[in-house]
């Protein structure tokens, strides 16, 4: 899978064009990069099957971007990029990932201090050299260091939203082997954790050798790290490590329980087994030498006097006690979800038309979507002002007649200004069905006060990506979350579970706090193209990790109830 590499190169071209003050084009490259990064299919196989024409079908990819991708797939290089990079031979993608580092600053630091990498930058900060450059200060040095350690911590992990297509491709290949009797993805992927360190796959078979031999030769495998009779590890072209474990069918349940983890959950469960005079391992639940249970997880938990906790809850954060008391909540299910409350289109920075988005959601079985475009002051091309917003309301009325079977709600993703007011007037917001409001700039201001002020605005329904975290890029801004929850409750404002792969915001911990405080939540994929409809799966996973039941989520309401709630 070359998607990540291609995306990185396109993003770099975008950055370099931005440096030259080229208008709009940088943006087109970045948009294409985002679309490719989140494709469910490998660009190289798209190219193999359909050539340049296939590439151009990817949303946001036109002739010239398609040609650059083709050049890379054929030669491993993009001449244009190589030439430009001679003047700025630095790791642009890595450096611009640091908070406050735009491409112009990257250039400045290269010219003045020969900073080429994050390691160079760190050294320069340690030597107090950055603060002496115009446009930087002591404060920016501090922020950069903070951001670097956050990036380092989260960068090695892959957002789960990007993992699914890769994993399902592997599972599909494995399922084609007739020797595979049963297969599951275990580990953090099964637990739907926001980010994944490596992928763990469990297979039951009578013929481990055939499974191992085929697995290590699969399409997409770059390197075999280890190959044994019962366990192997490979590195995929995408950089992801996959561990596979092969076992006989009769211990499938205990092995799945073990490899699902989390480690903390497993240790707690093993202690319960010990207290009952049993021993639990990946090979089964034993009393002395006698196997009591091993075929299914349910059977094992039952013998321990517990309910079987859904994998998403297995973090030892209260699920063990709840399972023992038989009081596990009924978590929200994919079939409960009726709509997506955060969707973009071509009107702002998305790559598909409203009609295309509506059709894609309809096909996926949804009853409604809210079109929530960026507004006013946000520094991206095509943010909507009041005039275009009203024009869109009229347009949506029209499209609603053209696409029956799904309702398109008019909305926006309005910016919360530093003073807590939205950057679109209330007179306009009042005319929309649903308003998401989010902080997009000025992260160092008092965000608690600012967000509370926004929640008190009766026209604002949902606070978008409430903590501002960007996985691998930006740490969450500081918030007094208890105060946020109080204000959300009293103002009847929902908090978003934004499940765009690099956001996943709110995260597990905050969602659970919101559920405990009975604050309403709203899943939004932040979809920017029809390919992003599938991000809902990780949003539901995340909601489940935070103990959400059907009643905790706006998305499970019928359109009538939702509209009433918003009013
Ligand atoms: P990750 O890969 O960092 O996203 O997180 P996990 O949970 O997938 O962790 P991983 O891949 O190291 O191990 C997969 C599962 O195997 C883990 O969830 C539980 C089990 N496991 C691994 N090491 C241990 C261990 O030392 N003790 C126990 N009880 N279980 C373990
Ligand atoms: Ca893992
Ligand atoms: Ca592993």
What is the secondary structure topology, with strand pairs?
Elements: H1 3-19, H2 25-37, H3 43-56, H4 63-75, H5 79-87, H6 92-96, H7 103-113, H8 118-126, H9 138-155, E1 158-159, H10 160-175, E2 180-186, H11 187-190, E3 195-196, E4 199-205, H12 208-215, E5 221-227, E6 231-236, E7 241-247, H13 252-260, H14 263-275, E8 279-281, E9 284-287, E10 290-293, H15 297-303, H16 319-324, E11 339-343, H17 354-363, E12 368-374, H18 386-402, E13 407-415, H19 426-429, E14 434-438, H20 447-456, E15 462-463, H21 481-491, E16 494-498, H22 508-516, E17 521-524, H23 536-545, H24 559-566
Parallel strand pairs: 4-7, 11-12, 12-13, 13-14, 14-15, 15-16, 16-17
Antiparallel strand pairs: 1-3, 2-4, 5-6, 6-7, 8-9, 9-10
Helix pairs in contact: 1-2, 1-5, 3-4, 13-15, 20-21
What is the compact description of this entry?
By secondary structure, the chain is an alpha/beta fold.
Uncertain segments: none
Distance between the termini: 46 Å
CATH topology of the largest domain: TIM Barrel
User: Please, how many helices?
Assistant: 24
What percent of residues adopt helix (DSSP H or I)? 40-55%
Mind telling me the CATH superfamily name of the largest domain? Metal-dependent hydrolases
- Return the CATH class of the largest domain: Alpha Beta
Q: List bound small molecules.
A: 2'-deoxyguanosine-5'-triphosphate, calcium ion
Q: How would you describe the shape? A: globular
Range of strand content: 15-25%
Q: Structural class of the helices, strands and pairings?
A: alpha/beta
Q: Walk across the major sheet and give the strand order.
A: 11-12-13-14-15-16-17
Q: What's the main sheet like? A: 7 strands, parallel
CATH architecture type of the largest domain:
Alpha-Beta Barrel
């Amino acid at each position: 899978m070359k998607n990540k590499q291609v995306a990185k190169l396109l993003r770099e071209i975008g950055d370099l064009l931005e440096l030259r003050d080229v208008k709009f084009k940088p943006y087109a490259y970045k948009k294409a990069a985002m679309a490719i990064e989140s494709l469910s299919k490998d660009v190289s196989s798209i190219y193999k099957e359909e050539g340049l024409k296939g590439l151009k079908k990817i949303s946001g990819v036109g002739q010239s971007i398609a040609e650059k991708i083709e050049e890379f797939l054929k030669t491993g290089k993009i001449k244009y990029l190589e030439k430009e990079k001679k003047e700025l031979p630095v790791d642009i993608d890595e450096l611009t990932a640091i908070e406050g580092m735009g491409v112009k600053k990257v250039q400045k630091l290269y010219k003045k201090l020969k900073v080429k990498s994050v390691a160079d930058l760190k050294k320069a900060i340690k030597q107090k050299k950055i603060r002496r450059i115009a446009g930087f200060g002591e404060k920016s040095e501090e922020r950069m260091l903070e951001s670097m350690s956050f990036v380092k911590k989260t960068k090695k992990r892959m957002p789960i939203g990007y993992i699914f297509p890769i994993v399902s491709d592997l599972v599909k290949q494995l399922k084609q082997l007739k020797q595979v009797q049963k297969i599951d993805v275990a580990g953090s992927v099964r637990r739907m954790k926001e980010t994944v360190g490596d992928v763990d796959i469990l297979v039951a078979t009578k013929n481990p050798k055939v499974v191992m031999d085929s697995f290590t030769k699969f399409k997409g495998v770059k390197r075999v790290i280890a190959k044994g009779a019962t366990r192997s590890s490979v590195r995929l072209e995408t950089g992801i490590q996959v561990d596979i474990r092969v076992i006989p069918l009769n211990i499938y349940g205990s092995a799945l329980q073990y490899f699902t983890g989390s480690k903390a959950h497993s240790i707690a469960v093993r202690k319960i087994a010990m207290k009952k005079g049993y021993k639990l391992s990946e090979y089964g639940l034993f009393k002395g030498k006698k196997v009591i249970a091993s075929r299914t997880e349910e059977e094992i938990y039952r013998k321990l006097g517990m309910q079987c906790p859904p994998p998403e809850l297995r973090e030892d954060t209260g699920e063990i006690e709840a399972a023992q008391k038989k009081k596990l909540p009924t978590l929200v299910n994919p079939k409960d979800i009726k709509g997506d409350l955060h969707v973009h289109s071509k009107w702002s920075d998305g790559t598909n038309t409203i009609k295309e988005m509506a059709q894609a959601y309809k096909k996926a079985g949804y009853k409604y979507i809210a079109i929530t475009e960026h507004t006013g002051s946000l520094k991206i091309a095509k943010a909507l002002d009041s005039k275009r917003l009203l024009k869109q309301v009229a347009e949506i009325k029209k499209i609603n007649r053209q696409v029956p079977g799904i309702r398109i709600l008019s909305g926006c993703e309005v910016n919360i200004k530093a003073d807590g007011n939205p950057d679109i007037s209330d007179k306009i917001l009042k005319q929309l069905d649903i308003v998401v409001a989010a902080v997009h700039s000025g992260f160092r201001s008092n965000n608690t006060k600012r967000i509370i002020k926004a929640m008190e605005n009766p026209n604002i329904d949902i606070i978008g990506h409430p903590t501002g975290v960007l996985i691998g890029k930006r740490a969450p801004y500081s918030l007094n979350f208890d105060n946020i929850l109080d204000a959300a409750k009293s103002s009847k404002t929902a908090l978003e579970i934004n499940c765009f792969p690099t956001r996943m915001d709110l995260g597990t911990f905050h969602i659970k706090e919101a559920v405990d405080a009975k604050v309403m939540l709203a899943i939004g994929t932040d979809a920017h193209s029809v390919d992003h409809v599938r991000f809902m799966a990780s949003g539901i996973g995340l909601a489940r990790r935070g103990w959400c039941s059907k009643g905790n989520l706006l998305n499970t309401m019928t359109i009538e109830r939702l509209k009433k709630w918003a009013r």
